[in-house]
Design a protein that fits this description.
Blueprint: E1 7-12, H1 15-27, E2 37-41, H2 52-65, E3 71-75, H3 79-90, H4 93-96, E4 99-102, H5 106-118, H6 123-131, H7 135-141, E5 166-172, H8 181-192, E6 199-204, E7 209-213, H9 217-221, E8 230-236, H10 240-252, E9 288-296, H11 310-338, H12 341-353, H13 357-368, H14 373-388, H15 394-397, H16 400-415, E10 426-430, H17 435-440, E11 446-451, H18 459-466, E12 471-472, E13 486-490, E14 495-498, H19 502-524, E15 530-531, E16 537-544, H20 547-555, E17 561-565, H21 566-569, H22 579-593, E18 598-601, H23 637-650, E19 655-659, H24 665-681, E20 692-697, H25 700-704, H26 706-709, E21 715-718, H27 720-728, H28 746-758, E22 764-767, H29 778-783, E23 788-791, H30 796-803, H31 808-819, H32 824-833
Helix pairs in contact: 1-5, 2-3, 5-6, 8-10, 8-12, 11-12, 11-16, 13-14, 14-16, 19-30, 20-22, 22-23, 23-24, 31-32
Length: 852
């Protein structure tokens, strides 16, 4: 609920007069939502007059919607005063005690009171300011001798009111997913810290949306503020400047999504290895489930025959909201202990939703209109959630799941129903996966979750998968099965089968069991090297996009980082990081992986990778334009700063540097010249001896000309995502081209083989795209000659485990047969046959390890 705010009631003989006065008063707020104002004016037949009963009802509504902060009643004249006094006798004594009748003139008093109440003042202050409402006019017009002044010879100061000063500020949205739930919640919390004395209104200048109340989480979210948009924040109140300063600082940090500089080296702690094999361990890697369906239905549409009085329904809703807030606080602490601060903030954002005036005020207004609390709350929640459907960004559209989830919990509390957490064995079937359900379900008993709606980026889905619970999203009416019906799904392929035949069911259960056993072995040996059965060691590293991901990789046994995506590390920065700031970040990552090396890829900007502080010109085909190294030919200053930081860190830490989008020998020569220049800027005569230098192989030209490009280098890294894209002429982010974007196409594998066979002696070959993170492909890649794999952090243990199951001779034979295949489907069949754990095809062809 919003903080309690003094409400106002206008009592007048004329309804038109009262409504006009209210309209004038609200304009004085310069935009922000003010206190609740009720009008009790005129008679039912439209005539002039006042009605004590109507005044009493208006006061009751104002008191309820104001949260008990008090009600100030302003009257015009004559019988309006008598009606207001009689209304006090009709009220509950407890309510009447919170009512003040003001002798102030109606218009001037109302203007002063509305502004003062909007600033969060108490009832006494509002009444005092209303009484003083005539002061400005009186001082301006009254003759100092006691009479009314004549028109002055010259105009003096402009007439002012008691309106607090208004200030505004433009704020850039830099978070990757814009103002989704967590950053929006931080913004609202910041505004709430200055409320009610200072109010906030927001507009999206880029999208032309708004204005909205800065205290309303759902309203802020519906601004559709995406990365790159600009907001206008307008603050009104005595602390307007302070609030805007806080918002500016928050915006510079991506509203909390910006990673910020790394911790000082002395504070970097490498966590202990995650070797638990209990069900529900983070990153279980099973991705498949089978069991009886356990339906968890939403109760938002449930009818409620409870018929309490209006005050009783207000109290029922307040009690239910308080109960859910307490439960969310428990879940936030649970998430903080077991999953981290980021996941805990999901529940804190949900608690903010429970205070959202867009929802709470709508619900209380419906109660005033005679609806039961349950129906009033459900309708308000549905309206708020529907607003998300209009947003352009898919990630933000899925934030409507959060509104549904928190709303459903309040309805359960109102109806006296148990929370949706289930202790039954089986596969949960839900409309959308609420984060609270995701963290509180018993992961040792729930085999998996099917959702009818929602996508893979919902907060509940992310939490469940982090806990090791397989989730298949957006299956629609395929999930409409009776309780107890056996369902089986494989989230890797998207396959789902209902009531499988005995033979298929047995095979699928064996696959799940085998994956579980394999994952357990992988976690137990996560810190052990990956050594093939014939004694060849393959280094498995982690792709890194932040210090947190670096720590996760180290925790799961990564032997360094084969790819630090620096454009992702600094993606939320509005201004380019300085050399010193980059040194701090790279050194912290190096400390996490010591003594293993860390590989820094220089800025890979362009195509689908924007960098706020290094914009590239709009191009007709950006994927074939100024990407990677090419983007700095005209102005290499940003790249030189980065290379200077790399050289500085490499003096004390094992480091490598990779240059992306290299195509020609001239590219390599220019990159090395820049590196030498940067070393001199760092006070060195040459790049540090321990700094290894390499290039990314992402285009067919580089793969085919690798013998010349790699002369004098220490390593090359195959970027399989782009190599697939450029080899098959299929943009990797375009779902319409999925059929043409197959990482197992023999043409792609042939280029991988060309690189490993063509590099000069002594040059290491790694692979760092999506293929490296697919355990099914680990042996094939080693068979093609790849010496190092850099995978997603969560995939590292299982990739290492797969490599321990075969010999280089077996992997080489698999690669030779794959190169002879006519198409990707044939390669896929070979790969599946070679796996130590079975794969069950539930409903047709499936893709393995594609870079989509």
């Amino acid at each position: 609920m919003r903080p309690a705010v003094v409400s106002l009631v206008v009592v007048s003989h004329s309804r038109a007069l009262a409504e006009a006065a209210v309209g004038l008063a609200t304009q004085m707020l310069h935009g922000p939502t003010g206190p609740h104002v009720e009008v009790a004016a005129g008679l039912e037949d439209g005539g002039l007059g006042t009605d004590a009963g109507a005044v009493a009802r208006a006061v009751s509504r104002a008191d309820a919607l104001g949260g008990g902060a008090g009600v100030l009643v302003l009257v015009d004249l004559g019988s309006a005063v008598l009606s207001a006094e009689m209304a006090l006798e009709l009220l509950d004594p407890e309510v009447a005690a919170r009512v003040r009748l003001s002798p102030a003139p109606l218009v001037e008093g109302l203007l002063a009171a509305v502004v003062t109440a909007a600033g969060g003042a108490d009832l006494d202050t509002c009444a005092r300011e209303a009484d003083a409402g005539l002061r400005a006019k009186d001082e301006h017009l009254r003759d100092p001798r006691g009479g009314v002044a004549s028109a002055p010879a010259e105009a003096s100061e402009t007439v002012t009111t008691t309106t607090p000063l208004a200030s505004s500020l433009e704020l850039a949205v830099t978070a990757e997913h814009g103002l989704h739930a967590r950053p929006a919640a931080r913004l609202v919390a910041c505004a709430a810290g200055r409320a009610p004395r200072t109010t906030l209104r927001l507009r999206n200048l880029t999208a032309g949306r708004g204005p909205v109340d800065g205290l309303s989480l759902s309203a802020v979210a519906t601004l559709d503020a995406q990365q790159g948009h600009v907001l206008l924040a307008e603050a009104v109140g005595p602390e307007a400047e302070q609030l805007l300063a806080e918002l500016e600082e928050l915006a510079l940090m991506g509203f909390g999504d910006f990673p910020g500089p790394a911790e000082p080296l002395a504070e970097v702690d490498v966590p202990a290895p995650a070797v638990s094999t209990e069900p529900g361990v983070a990153g279980s890697g099973l991705e498949a489930a089978i069991g009886p369906a356990v339906r968890v239905e939403s109760v938002l549409e449930t009818a409620d025959d409870h018929a309490g009085s209006v005050p009783e329904e207000h109290q029922r809703l307040a009690d239910a909201v308080a109960g859910v807030r307490a439960r969310l606080a428990e879940l936030a602490e649970q998430a903080r202990r077991h999953l981290g601060q980021g996941e805990a903030e999901v529940f804190e954002a949900h608690a903010t939703l429970l205070q959202d005036p867009r929802i709470t005020e709508a619900a209380h207004a419906r109660i005033e209109a005679g609806e039961p609390a349950t129906e009033a709350w459900s309708a308000a929640v549905r309206a708020a959630a529907e607003a998300f459907a209009t947003l352009a960004d898919p990630y933000q559209r899925e934030r409507g799941q959060d509104v549904h989830g928190v709303g459903d919990r309040v309805v359960r509390m109102l109806l006296g129903l148990e929370e949706p957490e289930s202790t039954a064995h089986g596969v949960l079937v839900v409309d959308e996966l609420d984060p609270a359900l995701a963290i509180s379900l018993d992961a040792s008993k729930v085999q998996g979750v099917l959702t009818r709606n929602g996508g893979t980026t919902g907060h509940g889905v992310l939490i469940a998968t982090a806990r090791g619970v397989p989730v298949l999203t957006g299956v629609g009416d395929r999930a409409d099965v009776p309780d107890g019906t056996v369902v089986a799904f494989d989230a890797r392929s998207g396959d789902l089968v209902v009531d499988p035949e005995p033979a298929l069911r047995e095979a699928f259960e064996e696959m799940v069991s085998a994956r579980s056993r394999e994952r357990g072995r992988a976690l137990r040996h996560a810190r052990s090297p990956a050594v093939t059965t014939d004694g060849v060691r393959v280094r498995v590293k982690a792709n890194v996009s932040s210090l947190a991901v670096a720590r996760l990789g180290a925790d799961l046994g990564a032997e360094g980082s084969g790819l630090v995506r620096t454009e992702a590390v600094f993606a939320q920065w509005r201004q380019a990081p300085s050399v010193d700031q980059q040194v701090e970040v790279y050194a912290a990552m190096a400390a996490v992986y010591h003594p293993h090396p860390v590989t820094i890829r220089t800025w890979d900007v362009g195509g689908d990778k924007p960098l706020p502080f290094h914009p590239v010109p709009v191009e007709g085909n950006p994927f074939l334009g100024a990407r990677g190294l090419r983007a700095f030919v005209e102005d290499p200053s940003l790249l030189l700063d980065q290379l200077q930081a790399v050289c500085t860190v490499a003096v004390d830490h094992p480091l490598a540097v990779l240059f992306p989008m290299v195509t020609t020998v001239q590219d390599v020569r220019w990159a090395r010249e820049l590196l030498a220049t940067a070393a001199r800027r760092a006070g060195l005569s040459a790049p540090p001896p321990g700094l290894q230098v390499g290039i990314m192989v992402e285009v067919p030209a580089a793969a085919l000309g690798i013998a010349h490009l790699a002369q004098g280098l220490d390593l090359v890294s195959i970027g399989s995502n782009d190599l697939v894209q450029y080899t098959l002429a299929a943009e990797r982010g375009n779902p319409r081209l999925a059929a043409w974007s197959d990482a197992l196409d023999p043409a792609v594998l042939s280029l991988v083989r060309s690189v490993t066979a063509g590099v000069p002696e002594g040059v290491r070959v790694g692979l760092c795209g999506a293929m490296a993170g697919d355990p099914d492909l680990a042996g094939l890649l080693v068979g093609l000659g790849v010496q190092e794999l850099s995978a997603s952090a969560a995939s590292v243990p299982l990739v290492k485990q797969r490599l321990r199951t075969g010999s280089t001779a077996e992997f080489g034979d698999l690669a030779a047969r794959a190169l002879a295949c006519p198409d990707g489907a044939s390669v896929r069949a070979l790969v599946q046959e070679a796996q130590p754990t079975p794969t069950v095809r539930l409903s047709g062809p499936r893709a393995v390890g594609t870079a989509r």
